[in-house]
Amino acid sequence: MEAYPMNGGNGPNSYANNSFLQRFFVDWSKSMIDEAIADYLDIQICPSSNTFRIADLGCSAGPNTFIAMQNIIEAIDRKYREFEGLSGSTPEFHVYFNDHASNDFNTLFVTLPPEKPYFAAGVPGSFHTRLFPKGTLHVVYSSLSIQWLSHVPKEVLDIDSPAYNKGRIHYTNARQEVFEAYSAQYAKDIEAFLHARAEEVVCGGLVVLIVPAIPDESPPSQLHTQSMFDILGSCLMDMAKTGIMEEAEVDSFNLPAYSTTSRELKNLVERNGCFNIERIVDILPQENKMRPSVQTLSDHFRAALEGVIKSHFGFDEHVLDLLFQHLYPQKIEDTFASLTTYMEKTTTLFVILKRK
Amino acid sequence: MEAYPMNGGNGPNSYANNSFLQRFFVDWSKSMIDEAIADYLDIQICPSSNTFRIADLGCSAGPNTFIAMQNIIEAIDRKYREFEGLSGSTPEFHVYFNDHASNDFNTLFVTLPPEKPYFAAGVPGSFHTRLFPKGTLHVVYSSLSIQWLSHVPKEVLDIDSPAYNKGRIHYTNARQEVFEAYSAQYAKDIEAFLHARAEEVVCGGLVVLIVPAIPDESPPSQLHTQSMFDILGSCLMDMAKTGIMEEAEVDSFNLPAYSTTSRELKNLVERNGCFNIERIVDILPQENKMRPSVQTLSDHFRAALEGVIKSHFGFDEHVLDLLFQHLYPQKIEDTFASLTTYMEKTTTLFVILKRK
């Protein structure tokens, strides 16, 4: 399994300082989570004398994960207080922050809110595998994470395969076989994710997912993230043409990310069979009032992708700066008529699953 | 609360590469732990369908903590298998690795044994506070850690106090008031430690402690660690005299560590009242066959103390090298007639407590 976590530390290129666009989804989902917990969480799954366990899978660094955990706990707490009436007895909370072992847990730990209403633990490992003992979690949350594949599908790197993805770094505008290889890998990974969670989550426990997606009938190339990946690939090809690296190095590089559709995700959950789908709705892009500059967009992609790019191409800071401060923002600007158009192409699913 | 964890990373001065002397206690305690678990652990505190939870408090980095956790799990596993007969049903294990938030958890996580028989989590925070929800731990382990105080007693830094510790960095050979200030702080810290554990450990759960100590009737100055600290203080005074820093900087520096006696620790556990003392025995120093070179000793102290020294004096690598590669090993050599004599002065307690 490959692991390229977000950029660590607190520096100018860190995820911690380049994840405020993702914050929209944290804020937007707050009321949806309040509702979901009010409607679907049966607090009898955890008597108030026990420990209520929550996990954020693919948490990276703060502050988004801390805000999300706080929101979830407030909603659960409210539910207990209502149920228990004025006695107000609520369980103690244990929050597990999960990401790859190579994630920057040191930064996560020293930035934990000092007055947090929970006990905190970090859990290293891929969420495509088992991370927790059986039947121990009550709520699982994962925001903008399960689009990451466990690895790039092998076929797209195999020069003899019809899915070989020459000259591109993603399936956007590539041959259908490339898309199919990604789609098959996503199906396997989601099955692994759900299979592990089915073991870990108690009956009646909830799984809250925020998932980058494309509209059910739209061609994959129309999604912004793919377009952004495609533009990045085109920058890398330009760099290869100037001799910074070989074109073959771009051919052998693909981004392990996939955007599903609502229908596809539903099918995968149903095929797994362990969860009921309580909600699956679009987070409307129009509601996202953030209008980042192209440089901000580029910085956000850098915080997420620098690790995997550095590891493959061996770029130093100078070349990474050239890519993310010049070539990439310039090409984004040239491609999109306006950033509003770009933002309106975004689609994201808010999903509530309940363990049967 | 102050936090100066062991040196992080995998470099030449890291704790990971300078903790093989501590390994003796891990190996030596293995058979004692096997026995203690066989004799004192009632496996009915955790039905085999539940999760068995173990915490290592003050774990620092591997490999010692990984070996210790493996030993404990093997002993527990054996007990379940014997009890359950051939059906061999054992619980799943959740191991919590705890240390200060500024400990190098990143190194800990990437060096976790790949084939470990447990789910792993890291828990950031001081073991003088609550770290876990109520009644969730079955076995707590802490090796060579509870000698660290939550902070240096204030009086020894107060120029107007009779406990002001001028020209020294520890209570060895200092005024009685200095020793008493340290002793009072240790009593407070152990009470805080036991109070927190009393909440976290289930009834019947075990606490395994490996504790640096001095024989009941010996004066504090006869213990090796204190002598080692005293020698280090003397090196720092020498450095001040050559003008590397002011003597006042040494006056305001004290090491937050204390070696108890068996009797004192017993009294503190009894005063707390939540635990039965099942065993408290000396780990015999004669059995320790390791005969490290003075440089190895100096390197081990560096891995543990560099953080607190750097933070106080602001030394760069060059000055730290001067101290730990020249002055300190030379003075250790000059002080001890032979390292055998040094090693024979070590005393360590192996303690088993059971939650009432």
From TrEMBL, chains A, B:
Keywords: Magnesium, Metal-binding. One of its GO terms (molecular function) is methyltransferase activity. The keyword Magnesium applies. It comes from the Eukaryota. This is S-adenosylmethionine-dependent methyltransferase. It comes from Papaver somniferum (Opium poppy).
